Amino acid sequence: MSNHWVSEAALWIAQSQLDWDTAHELAESRPYVSCFYAQQAAEKALKSVYVVEGLEMPRIHSIGGLLSGLMDQFSQFEPFRDVAAILDAYYIGTRYPSAELGQVPGKNYTMKNANDAVTAAKGIVDACQSIFGAAAQEQH
């Protein structure tokens, strides 16, 4: 693995941490934004693993899809299968009105939704940071 991949992966993992920080900070005041940023944090963290491992990154936004592509190689992602669907629902549902819900998206999410999303994303981000750290160490 080249230093280029480690450098690019470092950008992905750093942005995932910023997105998680944003999700955490907005959980109480803007739960719908928090849910979206929690999903983004998990997505970018998972994509950092694809990059640092030199794997072809799927052009998807699904946490479940990204996890399934890494599951054979990284068993530490197994516990996150159940929360992937929850985080996936926050990619579109937090931002786009749907006639079936009958409300603007920002009014459909609670602080509990946000706290659950932040917790789920934190587990994924932490696992990815651990994988990134190990891969980066191999470069030195």
- For the termini, the CA-CA separation is 11 Å
In this structure, how is the largest beta sheet organized? none
Rg calc? 15 Å
**Which residue ranges are poorly predicted, with pLDDT under 50 across at least 5 consecutive positions?**
none
Notable characteristics:
5 helices, about 65% helix, about 140 residues
What can you tell me about this protein's structure?
It is built from 5 helices and no strands. The model has no long low-confidence stretch (mean pLDDT 92). The relative contact order is 0.21. The protein starts with a helix and ends with a helix. The protein is 67% helix and 0% strand. Helix 2 packs parallel to helix 3 and helix 3 packs antiparallel against helix 4. It has 140 residues and is mostly helical.
Could you outline the blueprint of secondary structure elements for this entry?
Elements: H1 3-26, H2 31-52, H3 63-70, H4 81-92, H5 111-138
Describe this structure in a few short sentences:
By secondary structure, this protein is mostly helical.
